[in-house]
Amino acid sequence: MNISNRYLTASLFTFFLSSFSHTAFANNLNVEIESPQTIDSKGRLHLVFSKSADREPRNYSAWPTRNIEPLFSKDLEKVPTGEAMQVNFNDAGFPYRSPQDLPPGNWFVQVIYDTDAFDSRINSPGNYYSEVQKVELDFLDSKVLSFNLSKKLPPETLPAEQEHLKFVKMPSELLTEFWQHDMHLRAGVILPKDYYSQPDKVFPVVFSIGGYHGRYDRAERTFNNKDFQTYWFGDEAPNMVLVFLDGEAPLGDSYQIDSANNGPYGEATWTELLPYLTKQFRLVDSGETRFTTGCSTGGWVSLALQLFYPDMFNGAWSFSADGVDFRYFQLVDIYKDENAFINEHGVERPSFRAKDGEIIFSIQREIMMENTMGRNDSFAYSGGQWGGWNAVYGPRLDNGQPSVLWDPITGEINKEVAQAWSRYDLRKYTEDNWSSLGPKVAGKLHIWMGDMDNFYLNNAMKLYEEMLSNQTQPISDAKFTWVDGAGHCDYRAIPMLQKTLSQMHDRVPEMYQTK
Q1: Is the overall model pTM greater than 0.85, yes or no?
Q2: Residues spanned by the domain of 245
């Protein structure tokens, strides 16, 4: 980056921060932490403020809109017992750099100490947290906020099962070896209406992948939906097993594929979990009867699985997929652009928009939030969307840490890392391998996208469609559905599921087709 561009970036960043700054307190705001027992674990302490008493502040929204709860975070080696521990949160906050910059008034405030490096969530099982306090901040008095980490989140428990709703948690040898820590794979399973009345029958399976960080317990919400139950136990629903995969990984979402930073989530899912599910739930052991679908992250994963494992699945129904061409990674061309935060016109690059085009927040604002959330003050450890992409697509450094595609403060793109990302560029992968891949995915690619996707994902999908339309050896028969004015995952979930399952059922070999 040249000097003028660097100056422009720094100036815009300073302006960006000042736009969220209010008159600072005349005196300091000090924070003290106590614990009834020594917490002899490294972790990240989060101090969260909220204007609402509707939920505990620790249940942080991680959605950087205008009214996001202020968050301040700090890495700690441990929390001793016996005396109060002073914690300085200066220069570790979002959207304010310091608690002293908070606007005056009444706040609900709470701390949580995240000690679990193998779970990407702030509120992971076993983490310590305090009671919620209501405080009044003003300009006159120095404040000392004292918190006691007296509460602890309970161990993980699977949701309650029902006759046609099951949950799986199985140890993974492959992931345990990679992480040198006990690791598990999870799934939610919805069984078809005739599952128990036909005990000798085997069933086709649909793998549902959620949006970013979508958990396996999505199965419970789907199953308990009244419209879904009316359909599922009626005459029109096909007898197929629905498996809801789990997106949780130590650095965000696993994307159900192998990656240098997350480890062998692809191999573990398809060589450990799949055989277990096949045996446990009487699945047909054939690629002709397996399907993938999902929206957003699930849209990318469902398409990627069909491309990376073309014989394992008989169709992907991809909705509002994450960027499938890294020349439009949202609005960033990771190969040619110099900076992710500031575009070639010197304007801050947006990340999220309303369907009328109104900008809601920028990439720079989103990264600032994730830098606050993440260990080492880095979005690479945030568990957020950008950190998750870095973990899945990026190389691993020699010290074991994940690389980052761009500098978290300036936004300057690392071209060496960008080149390493290219192996996950689905447009490039499809184009480079089309002569052998094309025949294997014939009739299998079904893609839906709104032309006003809130995350600008329609741009990359247009490039993907153009690439496929130019293939001649063989000609592509991929089906694209574009919806004018539609945003991200902007469709009615249950009717779309019905339509999707019907199309999948039509591709099932006749001997396994039953309704």
Answers
A1: yes
A2: 165-325+425-509
